[in-house]
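Suppose you are handed only these lines of text.
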Amino acid sequence: MLTEQQSTRATPSFDVVPGEGGREAIKLEKAEVVYGRGKRTTQALAPTQLRVEKGEFVALVGPSGCGKSTILKLVSNLLAPSSGHVHVGGREVGAKRVGVGMAFQNPTMLPWLSVRDNVMLPLKIVPPFRSRFRKARKGEFRDRADALLEKVGLKGFGDKQPWQLSGGMLQRASLCRALIHEPELLLLDEPFGALDQFTREELWGILQNLWLESKPTVLLVTHDLREAAFLGTRICVMSPRPGKIIDDQPVPMARPRTISMTYDQDFVRLTQQLRELITHSRPDVA
Ligand SMILES: Nc1ncnc2c1ncn2[C@@H]1O[C@H](COP(=O)(O)OP(=O)(O)OP(=O)(O)O)[C@@H](O)[C@H]1O
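From them, the structure of the protein bound to adenosine-5'-triphosphate can be written out as follows.
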C-alpha cells in the first residue's frame, strides 16, 4: 500500500522532461540480490544497472521469476541488495525522506474501514500529513480523498465498505490510496493483472491522466506488453533469472495515448519487438 522512506517527500520536481538531464530519482548500480543462505540460495537478480529520472514512467517487463518485483523491493527499501548500491532521490536508499506510494495486483483494503477511510490511510501514517490529520484537518483530507475517488470514477462510493465494491472498483480505490499523499515515487506491481481486459484498459487511461497531472516517478511491473507501451515513457526488458536489464528503450508515442493507438502499426511493432526479446531471452524456448 504505502511505504515511507523515513518520512515526507522532499521538494518535488515534476517539471523534468524524461531523459533530458533531469534529476535522478532511482539508480541501481550493480545491484545484485541473492535470497537465502548457505547452500539454499537463489540468485534473483544479477548485478543490474538502472537509472530513472524524476517524472519518468518506466515499465519493467520480463519472463516470470526474473526479478521484477525484487527490483521494486530494493527501491522501496524492503530489501537490501546483496551487493551493489540502490539510490533513491540521489542518496543511498533509506538515507533520505522520499514519499512512496504502492499498489499491487491484490488491492487489500481494511474491511472495517469505509472506502474513503482506506484511501485516507496514508495521511494518518505519513508525516507531515500525520500531525495535520490529528489537528482536525480531517475535513480537508476527506475532500482530497473524494476528489481523487471522483477522478477514478468512484464518485459517491466513499462511504461504502470494501466488500461492496467489485475487483476493478477496489483497484481504482487502491490507486487513490497510493496517490493520496502525493508521493514522489509510485511503485506498481502488476496492479491490473487480475482485471478483465475492458476494465484494465479503462484503468490505463485513468492512471495515465493521474500521472500527467503531477508526473510522479513511476516504476511499473507488468506482464502486459500493451500496458507497458501504453503507459511507459520507457520500457526496460529483463532477462530470465537471475535477471538484469537487457533492453531499455523510450516509447515515442504522443500523449495522451488512446486505446485505438495501441492498434497502430508503430505500437504493434513495438510490442512485437518486446515479445521477441523476451521470448528469445528464454533458455527453454527455441
Ligand atoms: N523471499 C524469497 N526467498 C527466496 N527466493 C525468492 C524470494 N522472493 C523471490 N524469490 C525468487 O527470486 C526470483 C525472482 O522473484 P521475483 O518475485 O522478483 O520475480 P518476478 O519477475 O517479479 O516474477 P513474476 O513475474 O512471476 O511475478 C524467483 O525465482 C523467486 O522464486
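What can we learn from it? The chain has a mean pLDDT of 89. The first strand starts at residue 2 and ends at 5.
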